[in-house]
């Protein structure tokens, strides 16, 4: 994937189990083309995995993934067709699930949601 540094990459993904791996590959190719540091690239891969996994588990698809450069780093957005807003929940020690948004918050400079006519966008910015 060859992109101009300022050109966002936007793709539609199915809301299926394989979407997270596909999103990681797309984000990885984009940040490599842009010359983003390996540390930020690794964090972006984990963040997009969590955002896409949450959308697959809790929302309706298809999903729209957009990754773009910002002055301070990169921005990852995942749009889905559910108006329900994500919220971190208390971690249950004996559960393998429920840590996604905590991970996103820890790795991102900032994250949030934006409503849209047919759902929402969950985004994260990494420095």
UniProtKB/TrEMBL annotation:
Top-level taxonomic group: Bacteria
Transmembrane segments: none
CDD domains named among the record's database cross-references: HATPase_RsbW-like
Keywords: Kinase, Serine/threonine-protein kinase, Transferase
Domain Histidine kinase/HSP90-like ATPase: 13-124
InterPro entries: Anti-sigma-factor_SerPK, HATPase_C_sf, HATPase_dom
Gene3D superfamilies (UniProt xref): Histidine kinase-like ATPase, C-terminal domain
Molecular function in Gene Ontology: protein serine/threonine kinase activity
Designated name of the protein: Histidine kinase/HSP90-like ATPase domain-containing protein
Species whose genome carries this gene: Saccharothrix espanaensis (strain ATCC 51144 / DSM 44229 / JCM 9112 / NBRC 15066 / NRRL 15764)
């Amino acid at each position: 994937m060859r992109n101009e540094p300022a050109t966002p990459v936007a793709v539609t993904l199915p809301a299926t189990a394989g979407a997270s791996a596909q999103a990681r590959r797309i984000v990885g190719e984009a940040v490599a083309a842009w010359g983003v540091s390996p540390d930020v690239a690794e964090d972006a891969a984990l963040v997009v995995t969590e955002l896409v996994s949450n959308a697959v588990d809790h929302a309706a698809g298809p999903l729209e993934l957009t990754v773009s450069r910002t002055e301070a780093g990169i921005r990852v957005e995942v749009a889905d067709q559910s108006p329900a807003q994500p919220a971190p929940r208390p971690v249950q020690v004996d559960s393998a699930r429920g840590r996604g948004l905590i991970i996103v918050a820890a790795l991102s400079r900032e994250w949030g949601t934006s409503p849209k006519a047919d759902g929402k966008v969950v985004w994260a910015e990494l420095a």
